[in-house]
Structures are given as structure tokens and as C-alpha cells.
Amino acid sequence: MECENNRPVEINIPEPLPDYNSENNIGSWRQLFAANMGKRVKIELSLFDGTMKSICGDIYLVGNNYIGLSYGDKLYFGDLFSIKFATFY
Fold it and tell me: What range does the domain containing 82 cover?
């Protein structure tokens, strides 16, 4: 099944949690990514089959358990708990 069709992404995204500087989030991926919103990052995700997947883009949104990256006309979302490495550019 082909998903590419060159049309703009139009999805409804819930509002992210407002405070990632709370005591529970200090030193977390949430706080790190929220503090660097809009910056370019490459994240390495651990997949269920034991392999790693790299995704690069600008930090678009940080949710409670996920991160959203934008790259061109695409939005990529990943589970914060599967992130193993992050490289900022």
C-alpha cells in the first residue's frame, strides 16, 4: 500500500502538556526536546524487532509520550520511550 501522494499533511494534533520543567520531568527526554522546540534533531528509535530507525527533522511538538518532527511537508511521530539517541544540529 503506497502512502506517498504529495499532498500537505492535515492532521489534528492534541495540545501538548504545558509544563515540562516540573519536578517529574527534570532530566527527561520531554524536557530536553521541549526546550529545543524548532531545532533540527536526528533521533534513533529502537524498533520491536531489535533494529534501529533514524529519523531527522525539526522538533515540531512534544507530547506526554511522543515527539513530532517535521521535515519538508511530512510529519513524523515517535514514542519517547523508544528513543535511544538524539543528535542536535
Answer: 23-88
- Alpha carbon distances (Å) from 48 to 11, 52, 67, 73: 26, 9, 18, 27
In Å, how far are 7, 22, 28 from 75, measured between CA atoms?
A: 12, 27, 23
Which residues does the chain have with pLDDT short of 50? 1-2
The reported pTM is: 0.74
**How many domains does the chain contain in total?**
1
Chain centroid to CA 56 = 9
What's the pLDDT score for residue 70?
93
Say whether 80 sits in a helix, a strand or coil. Answer: helix
